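Objective 1b: paired records.
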Amino acid sequence: MPRYQITLTGAGRGRFEAVMTDRATGWQIVFGDCRREMRDGQRICAGPQTEGRGLWMLEMRKKADGYYQIDLTDAPHWLIRFEDCELDTEDGRQCITGWCNQAEPLVAEKEAA
C-alpha cells in the first residue's frame, strides 16, 4: 500500500478541506481552507496548511484525462505529488482521493546535496 494518502472534500461555499496522512507514521497535514482560483489560465484549488507549523501549500488541478493532480509543497524543501487522484465516496460524501509512495526534494535541496 502506498505511504501517503490525500483526501479532499467540499466544505461548502466554494471551499474545500484536505487531509494528507503518512500511513507509516500516522502524521497528518490539514488544509482546512482551500479555495478555487485562476492560475496560469487554469482553474485550480489552493490553500495553506491550517494546523501545525503552516509551511505546506496545496494545489490541485484537473488533468486532461479526467483525473486530478494534487501537489503539496513545503518550499524550498519537499514536494509530495499525487498524480492520479480520482472522485470517490467516503462516509457518504463525495471526495477526491489519491495515493503516492514518496516525497521528492525540490530543486534547491537537490542542488545543495
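Objective 1b, second protein:
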Amino acid sequence: MRMLATLLALMALGGTAAAASLTQKQKNALGHIAQAQAAADICPKLETNDLVMAVIMQGFGLDFSDATVKAAFLEKYKEQIAPWKGVSPDAACVAGILLYGPNGSNVKGLVRLKQ
C-alpha cells in the first residue's frame, strides 16, 4: 500500500524518461529506490523520504507514469523484497538505516524513521 502511494505521488511530479529504454545510471537509481522502498515496506519503523526520492527521480529523468520506468521499478522491487521473506523486520530496519538512512552508505536520507 505504501509503495502504491509512493508511486502515485511520484507520478504527479512528472519527469522525462525515454520511453524506449533506460540508461544504466537510471537503472541504478531505480535499484536504490526499490531497495529503500523494500526496506521501508518490511520495517514498520521506516518510511521512504518522498522528497529525496523525487530529487533522485528528477535528477535521473525518471517518471513513474512512463510504463518502462514503472516496469523496471517493479522488477527491481520484486528482486529486492524476495530475499527478505521470513527474515526478521528488525534486520530490514538495520539494513535500511545503514544503506539509506541519514548517514547511509548508498544514498543518504532515502529512508527515515517514521515520525
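Residues 24-42 form the longest helix (19 residues). Residues 7-20 have pLDDT under 50 and may be disordered.
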